[in-house]
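User: Structure tokens for this complex, please. No commentary.
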Amino acid sequence: MLITIIIILAVLSGLSFAYGAHRAKVWEDSKQRLSSRPGHYAWYAVIKFTVPSWLLLFAALLLKTTKIAVISPAVVLACSALLVIAGFIISSKKFSPLLNARVIVEKHIRYLLIAASLVSILTTVGIVFSILFEAIIFFKHVNVIDFLTGTSWNPDTAFLEGAGRESEHAAKPEFGSAPIFAGTFMITLISLSVSVPVGLFAAIFLSEYASNNFRKVFKPVLEILAGIPTVVYGFFAALTVSPLVVKVAGFFGLQADYTNALAPGLVMGIMIIPFISSLSDDVINAVPQSLREGGLALGTTKSETIKQIILPAAMPGIVSAILLAVSRAVGETMIVVMAAGLRPNLTWNPLEGMTTVTVQIVDALTGDQAFDSLATLSAFGLGLVLLIFTFIINLVSTYIVRRYRKIYE
Amino acid sequence: MAYLNEHDKKLKKRYAAEKRFQLYGKAALLLAVAFLVFFFYDMIKTGYTAFSQTEIKAEVTFNEETLQMPNRAVSKADRDVLSRGFLRILPQVVEEHPEYMNTTQTLWVVAKGDVDQYMKNKPNRLNDREIEYISNLRGADKIRLAFNTGFFTTGDSKMPEIAGIYAAMMGTILVLVVTMLLSVPLGVMTAIYLEEFAPDNKFTQLIEVNINNLAAIPSIIFGLLGLAIFINFFNVPRSSALVGGLTLALMTLPVMIISTRAALRAVPESIRHGAYGVGASPWQVVWHHVLPVSMPGILTGWIIGLARAMGETAPLLIVGMMAYIPDVPSGVTSATTVLPAQIYTWSATSLRPYVERTAAGILVLLTVLLALNFTAIWLRNKYERKW
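Assistant:
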């Protein structure tokens, strides 16, 4: 039925186009001066005759898929027919060589463009609301303070509550997420301790020391690291790096879990290198040449110039690059899902298994619990924390970059 | 003299520091490159064996009885080393080759997973009797390693020896079609609006802040969005290509917008002024002059967005695309799996033979992604114009 309506509307649109084009051609053939190109008249006809019907169909579809109201196809078809006829009666009278169809058509194009730009706003609103809405339901049952500071995460028995069996002798579900945040923090820390020095030094070398040809080759090579899918990194971390870590730890007489935090942390650090190196490279290049020359003229060596003049000048940009890397690491999912553990573990030992916010979100949402169970909803509680954290990091880094820009322009 | 010595010492120290500093930079770069080399070496080493597959020359009897009870189609000794997957599809074989009916054919049949692992000198669970039988087969030239066409022509399976990536590849293509159909027009339109039409006011600033924020949001959050909005609110079927495509489209939208804007910005003002000068309207300027000139740059952005969407896994897990789906999806609303999700499900199984298949799937994925990225770079270099 939907297909039929779409075909009917498409045919009507085609006819409208042909009608507009025909009218314009008749004027042109009789050597009248047109105020717009013939194509504009054709599109004008399409807009005035059939676009209202398309919008109606779209609205009816939205209402139907969201199950708010079902409008029968017959009604939609009848209304569309009325709209087309009304549009034809009202607008075909206005057709004349003097009609400035171009301006009207372009006004509608602009509406279309604005509508497209609104999608990005709608996406943000959708993200915030979908997460906030479910998270509020979650926080009705679980105290926010307990959630943020509790040290015991044990959501598995939440389904009993849904089944009306909470009085049975099972342990009550617990939602203390401190160990999860601790795990996230630990893995992020490990990854930054790899990516920041390596990325920064690589950027310094490429922008200050390396020849042009060398840079042309090695910058894309570094960027390959960012193009490898995270699921691949996850497989690599779990299959190759984790056993390696266990072996090396064993060599030093240490006991390491196979799902240790070190392996995903290290691999994630490698993944983040290009984010740091590319952004740092940009800001180091943006430092004015005069500062370099001034430093060298005072008799400093190149590395002294870099350390004492260029890096301080580029520091705000570098800090914002590091902040972006932090938000990358905190939000990274596949590597930790595949290589870090599921066990919430409050420890400083990176050789033990830990879990992160993203792992718990995936675990809660791919499990077999009902969507409205607290265990599932906890994913949205964690998602909210992740979202707020990302927003704050983003705000801070934008602020830093903006301040930095003012200095050298 | 003492003073000069002192000075020389200091200078030596400073030069040493300079050398050390350069060394750190070289070491950092070397480390990254070494990792990359090791990573590719490791993946290829783990995965290349999956491109060949052990086959055994076996006598297969086709008749009414064996079609009912496929176990009787082959000898008892062969039954232990052949893939049960082959016996299961006997009726299909007859359908394809009606002339086989009521005959006994000598065919190359896929061996079972552990035999395959044994042939590749990998850990396996064969017992001594089976190993002896295989060495007999080897003596009689009845066992071989052939190119694994099945890997590219079959879907997922619970039997590793006949598991392939065909269904996942088709699913990936379908999901990406949905993604591109949505994100390309939306991205280009948004970019055109922001770059060519938008007045500088609070509204456009809001859009810009939004786009930058969206680009920084972790991909898993888009999965939550897909789950809460598309599946629970709009009732799009779970694990379908439609919901996966929609989610990925929203995720790649910022990439598309940002790259298209950069391409549009690279078009010099003089072209616009020239067009206005001969009486073009704002849209005519964009459609007839700015867009054609900036097309290579926009295309590069599409390819990069496509590559990004292709490798993404986390949001797709959330919208349910990690189920066991052996069949090619029949449409955008049927259950679908994609290549990265297939890699994830394989890596999560405990059977050894899946490891090499996972790595082989990764090699295929990486090949496609690298090809896409190189195309983007090539396109940029070929059509980049300095104005």
